[in-house]
Each structure stands twice: as C-alpha cells, then as structure tokens.
Amino acid sequence: MKNIIIAPSFLSANFADLKSEIKRCEEAKIEWIHYDVMDYDFVPNLTFGSKILKDIANSSNFKIDIHFMVKVKTQSFEDFFTDYIKCNPAMMTMHIESMSTDESNKFYELCKQNNIEFSLAVSPKTEVKVLDTWLDKLDNILIMSVEPGFGGQSFIPEVLTKVEYLVEKRKNNHYKFMIEIDGGINGETSKQALKAGVEMMVAGSYLFESDNFTKKVETLKHG
Ligand code: DX5
Ligand code: ZN
C-alpha cells in the first residue's frame, strides 16, 4: 500500500495560538505542513509572508510545502523567494498560470539549486495538458480542487480527471512526480481523490476546525 501524505493547511489554523496548532499536528504524527502564500493579486485574498513561516519552522520539524498563489513583482524574480528559502522548505509550488515561460524556467532552476522539490499547480479551470512539457522535471503536481484563494470551499469533483490523466502519463513514461490535491478535502472527498490516484492531500478546515484532529487525519488516510 502506498504511503499517503496528509498536509494540514495552516490557512485554517488559529493564528493566535500557533503553538497549540503545531502540537496538534505533532500528536497526529504529521510529517508535512502546507503554507498558503496569497498576494491579493493572483488571488482575491491576502495571507502571510515569510516571518510566520520562519517562526513555525524554528518551532517544529515538519517538512514544509509552500503553495504560492502570487504574481511575482520584484525586479528580480528570484529575490521574491529568498526569505522563504531561508525557512528550509522541502517543496515549493507555483501556479503555472501566474508565470511567464521565462519565470517558470527560473523557478525550476531556483528549486534545483536549493535542493527544494519543484512543484507546479493548476487551478480548476486550467487544462492539465499545459504541464506536459514539464512532466519529466516535476517532483510534484498540485491539482487545485477549489478556486485558489480561500479555505472552506466545496470540492470540485471534475478535477479528478486531471489526476487520472497524470497517473496514466506517469505510468507510461516512468515520471517521478507525486500528485497532490488541495481544496475541499474531507472524509468523503478524500476517498474520491485516493481512488483517482493522489499521494498527497492538503486539508485545512476539515482538520483545524475539528476537535479530534488525530482521528480526522486517520480518516483521511484510510477512509
Ligand atoms: C486554497 C488553499 C488551500 C486551503 C484549503 O486556495 O490553497 O490550501 O487552505 O482549505 P480547505 O481544506 O478548507 O478547502
Ligand atoms: Zn494550498
């Protein structure tokens, strides 16, 4: 049986009590956490910068999965990522829709130079085929199952055909990428996502708004 990764999205955590939220993740034997960076431009919401991540990273041993929902505006594309890279993330994800081809190449190089897993995301309305030229280089693909921007939205089941497409492509070409799904994951939708073939599931409101975090993590993993 393959190992399913559950990555709690800190977007739904209680920011006034992050220590307890970290503890809940540790007690549930969480290995990866998901950190959503939004800029009020690429998406209609604003979240956090690198400082909160630095504090979380210094207070825990999680592998960090940074999901950037941003259009980079710094003069040098790479500069935007400097402080995030200092937090030692295991993986960084950018949306293919938010970058030019030149920026996508720069993002790939930046990840490789810093030994960070290279990941690209697609929003629900984006065809998964736009990733075809990247499939041999990707360590991970994030399939958005809600419109990016907010926690607590309903799962869009139609995106599962993208997961099935990637599973097939990977099998036929021996690609190495993992498949991650993000948005609207709960005890029911997780079953559909697992059946389609994902290896990593992000869950925000389902976990952090629960008073039995550990049990919900188990439900996501095993149905
Ligand atoms: C939405 C974010 C998600 C969000 C998921 O744009 O990318 O990571 O936190 O939240 P839930 O699990 O509540 O849909
Ligand atoms: Zn996310």
Automatic annotation (TrEMBL):
It is an enzyme of class 5 (isomerase). Its EC number is 5.1.3.1. Homodimer. GO terms for molecular function: D-ribulose-phosphate 3-epimerase activity; metal ion binding. Its cofactor is Zn(2+); Fe(2+); Co(2+); Mn(2+). It comes from Mesoplasma melaleucae. Keywords: Carbohydrate metabolism, Iron, Isomerase, Manganese, Metal-binding, Zinc. One of its GO terms (biological process) is carbohydrate metabolic process. It holds the Pfam family Ribul_P_3_epim. Gene3D superfamilies: Aldolase class I. Belongs to the ribulose-phosphate 3-epimerase family. CDD domains: RPE. The keyword Protein biosynthesis does not apply. It catalyses: D-ribulose 5-phosphate = D-xylulose 5-phosphate. PANTHER family: RIBULOSE-5-PHOSPHATE-3-EPIMERASE (PTHR11749). InterPro entries: Aldolase_TIM, Ribul_P_3_epim, Ribul_P_3_epim-like, RibuloseP-bd_barrel. This is Ribulose-phosphate 3-epimerase. It comes from the Bacteria.
